[in-house]
């Protein structure tokens, strides 16, 4: 599917939904990662410095978890700003995907996990409409990241 399949109305409602959760990027980004680590403990193995942390409380306090949560949200924010410009969008997605595939060797299923937790959090905090307006964005992001992985021979 092409990134250009977003109508102007979809772009606007997706940005509106994202803004609500991005206002607290560090806290919400941390919540998403902590949920991923607790619900999918195997994902912790990619972060050697998180391995010793077992409690969600410990993770929430960690500067490294908080920092990474904020980075994840910043990257998605950059993508959301370029939903109407596929060249710029891919300019963000491609290097990010390549780095995670080749250097970090992160299983691409983790992108879907993170996106699903973001949608879950949106629904909890702001309701089903908020989640619905962002779902297409998460599908696009995951599709394009998976394509980058395929090209990288994953």
TrEMBL record:
Any Pfam family hit: Globin
Enzyme Commission number(s): 1.15.1.1
Protein name: superoxide dismutase
Gene Ontology MF terms: heme binding; iron ion binding; oxygen binding; oxygen carrier activity; superoxide dismutase activity
Family affiliation: Belongs to the globin family.
Coiled coil segments of this chain: none
Reactions mediated catalytically: Fe(II)-heme b-[protein] + nitric oxide + O2 = Fe(III)-heme b-[protein] + nitrate; 2 superoxide + 2 H(+) = H2O2 + O2; H2O2 + AH2 = A + 2 H2O; Fe(III)-heme b-[protein] + nitric oxide + H2O = Fe(II)-heme b-[protein] + nitrite + 2 H(+)
Domain Globin: 5-150
Gene3D superfamilies: Globins
Keyword vocabulary terms for this entry: Heme, Iron, Metal-binding, Oxygen transport, Transport
Top-tier EC class: oxidoreductase
Cited function: Involved in oxygen transport from the lung to the various peripheral tissues.
Gene that this polypeptide is encoded by: Cygb1
Span of the signal peptide: none
């Amino acid at each position: 599917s092409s990134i250009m399949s977003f109508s102007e109305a979809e772009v606007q409602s997706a940005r509106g939904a994202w803004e609500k959760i991005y206002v607290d990027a560090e806290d919400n980004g941390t919540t998403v990662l902590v949920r991923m680590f607790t619900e999918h403990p195997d994902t912790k193995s990619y972060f050697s410095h998180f391995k010793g942390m077992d409690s969600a409380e410990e993770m929430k306090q960690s500067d490294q978890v908080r920092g990474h949560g904020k980075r994840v949200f910043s990257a998605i924010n950059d993508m959301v700003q370029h939903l109407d410009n596929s060249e710029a969008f891919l300019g963000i997605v491609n290097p990010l995907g390549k780095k995670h595939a080749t250097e970090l060797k992160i299983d691409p299923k983790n992108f879907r996990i993170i996106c699903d937790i973001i949608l879950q959090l949106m629904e909890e905090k702001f309701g089903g409409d908020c989640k619905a307006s962002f779902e297409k964005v998460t599908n696009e992001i995951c599709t394009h990241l998976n394509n980058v992985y395929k090209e990288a021979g994953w």
